[in-house]
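Lab meeting minutes (informal)
Scribe: AK
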Amino acid sequence: INPGNSGGALVNLGGELVGINSAILSRTGGNIGIGFAIPSNMMKIVMNQLIKHGTVKRGVLGVNIQTLAPEIAQSMGLPETTQGALVSQVVEGSAADKAGVKAGDVVTAVNGRPVKDAGSLRNAIGLLAIGEKVDLSLLRDGKPRRVTALVSERDTAAEAKAAGAGAHSGLEGADIVDGPNGVLIRSVAEGSPAAQRGLRSNDVILAVGRTRVATVAEFRSATEGQPAFVLQIRRGNAMLVIPI
């Protein structure tokens, strides 16, 4: 796979389509033998949605999730080998909320298929049709549970409200709240725009540019209408500047 191959077919030796080329890993821009492609089963679903709706409608549960790390599992009284997606927040009125999912639950399977991490849960739900029923296997207080949810369509406004950002698309996926000494980033969804820009859980936003912000309301005011800005972040004892 070389530059320019993106969007082209990835075929096996039998001439069967197995994926659509998307990117390469390269330090110089040339081929070093590591390439990436979107799986053909995912492309089938996207293709059918484009034909039917003219756009891709991804299913959502209405939760903020993060991969269950071994140390987090241990702190929750679970075996370190437990795999799944930890629910850090449930959006009010969402599919997950109506199904009875609660913050602190660990999703371990979707329709009987194991969930290894946050990414696999996001993909499993995103590929389901809007309105489709989904069986979720959960761990709550160490005990297994099963709930059924009705996959809903993504509500960007509700997600932004729940995340507390609502000011800039570059911060999508960051759950921010008023902190004692600034705006606290409570969690960052894996693979989200906020995560891609380097924001992490427990970061504290001190200022937008040179404007100090102590509350989410001040943060929204400082970023409203701004196409780009710089955040002054405190991470532990370190100070960082992150462009958005």
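Next up, CB showed the second protein from the same session:
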Amino acid sequence: ITGEFLAKKGYKVYGLSRSAGTSTLINFLPCDVTDLTQVEKSFASIKEDIDAVINNAGIGISGAIEYTDNKDIEKIINVNIIGVVNVCKVACQYLRKTKGKIINIGSVAGELTIPFQVFYSMSKVSIQVFSEGLAMEVKPFGIKVTTVLPGDTKTSFTQNRKKTEIKDTIYKDRVEKSVQRMERDEQNGRDPISVSKVIYKVLKKKNPPIKITVGIEYKILVFLKRILPTRFVNNILYQMYAKGK
């Protein structure tokens, strides 16, 4: 959606993905971003100057930490963190020339830890830390780095979430309630075009913010997290996502 939105704004958009999309507005390049060599080859195939890079690849897994398969943990770390690192490492050499921008898609779930979706929250807070550090390192080259934090957004992410098998009744009812709440919030969430519009604004700004949250309601939540006691905030999240039926 964001790629098409930006293409309609006049940008030439390239999409790095393992499977080719169907949009005629986007130039798809076959690439697994967790493979650094593939990322290097994809960037090298682009003949135009690169003005901006947007990292929006991401997956989610849900379930109790105790029963999450380590292979699933490795996969979410590889896609959500290593993939972003790979793209940024390669992009910097191109963006130094154009003094371009890097926009990494984080999540409000990186600010507010969601029980039974901890590995997703963990991956997204990592993106914030990575982006802040990268911004300082590349500042002398004129490269700007921003993390965009969407909240609940109605996308295919909900259907694609990997759900850890519930092996016994210890967590069963609580996990089911938590996942149902997450899925309901996502499907009743903001239109994904709202995220695209924020990304576009960041692209147009000469000095974009280090971090920007999508939606006033989520900006308020993030602000409250910073000023309220952690125990209080975590208890609210527990009541919402972990208390049980």
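CB comment: The chain has a mean pLDDT of 91.
No objections, moving on.
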